[in-house]
Amino acid sequence: MNREQARALIIAELGNIAPETDAGQIDAKADLREALDIDSLDFLNFIAALHKKTGVNVPESDYRKLLTLDGAVTYLAEKAK
Amino acid sequence: MEAGTLVEWEKHPGDAVKRGDIVAVVETDKGAIEVEIFVDGTMGKQLVALGTKVPVGTPLAEIEGAEEEKPEISVKVMKPAAAAVVAPPAPTAEEGVRASPAARKHAAEKGIALASVKGTGAGGSIVLHDVEQAAGAAPHRGLDLTKMRQAIAAAMARSKREIPHYYLAHDIDMNAALAWLEQTNAPRLPDARLLPAVMMLKAVALAARKYQAVNGFYDSAKGFTPAKDIHIGAAVAIRGGGLVSPAIHDCDRLSLDQLMDKLRDLVARAREGRLRSSELSDGTITVSSLGERGVESLYGIIYPPQVAIVGFGAIMRKPAAIEKNIAIRPMMTATLAGDHRVSDGHLGARFLREIDTLLQEPAKL
Hints:
The complex is a heterodimer of chains A (81) and B (365).
Chain A: H1 3-17, H2 32-35, H3 40-54, H4 69-79
Helix pairs in contact in A: 1-3, 1-4
Chain B: E1 3-9, E2 16-17, E3 22-28, E4 31-36, E5 41-46, E6 53-55, E7 58-64, E8 72-75, H1 101-110, H2 128-134, H3 145-162, E9 165-173, H4 175-185, H5 196-210, E10 216-219, E11 223-226, E12 232-234, E13 236-237, E14 243-244, E15 247-248, H6 256-272, E16 274-276, H7 277-281, E17 285-289, E18 308-312, E19 316-322, E20 325-339, H8 345-359
Parallel strand pairs in B: 4-16, 12-17, 17-18
Antiparallel strand pairs in B: 1-3, 1-6, 2-5, 3-4, 5-7, 7-8, 9-20, 10-11, 12-15, 13-14, 18-20, 19-20
């Protein structure tokens, strides 16, 4: 998966999690939890959705790597083949 | 909540229904509420037309063949004005699409093909909100935040006016609970993982079973009535403002995995404005947490007629005295706001201590 594909998927899934917001407009380096007002349950649902769509199982120890849009794109592009 | 408007029928005359089925959707100041049925039988005559605003307790339909004599569905939700007429089903080309009658009616009025609408209802079925969004209307999410704010204001003002609150705080070392959670989650796929919140809910439920004076209802005429069951109202923040506390039924009897499933489902439906009538009326004690926003301690306002609310703050790494040494530990402050007409600080302190004790042995939760 290249970065563009990863970014599109992540924005789509964040849109499902927080439909009141526009995930495509957030600062790529901002903390997603603050930028989108999502909580730990939303974040876990986001991780679960990425797993369902790509097969990438993000361990809890890696959650911090996906706390920004940039971080999540890098992580997914690297792990999802 | 004094009145509501019937916006959808999920079941129709002749449909077999069983306890727990959703039969209708009513819009109230707490959002759209799914009206459940509490008997098995067959849907009989519908007594209220779509679009009609009715007071709380108004029978909506009759149920035939149930054990109870002439059971009816009612809603904790004025005199009917001009009753709307339910439109016939949409054209045949749309028959293969799962959609609610209100959605079909609105789609027909707006000339929208249902097949082109993405459904967000149960099993992907199309509900009124989906058609309104497709029609480009103002988003109708079943949540009116202005009304919700008015409802919160009324309940909280009443609480502060009538309930003599007392407040307690208790620091809990979360080391054991977090270690157990990490170990438990490690081999699990993401959709099966647990959150600390479910451990806290379970601990509160078990502690409330032991200290019954925090679990029940106070009425100025009857005094305190302990609740037989433990239904925790879980405070859920609505993005954009607003708060609801739908009940998770029988928390003390659910496993952590079951609680996690319930919490996930409840939060999703709360934010969509699709809670069930029983979930908004059955809470026996409330739990609120603002820990994820970095709040160290939260002192809640009791949701009347309940008599207690438990608050959880952030789990923060802090220096703590462990016997004769100082260590950095993940600490969390649990608080209790109790109704002094029902319990005293002494009992409240023991209740918080019990929650602490339970969280030290997470495997037993």
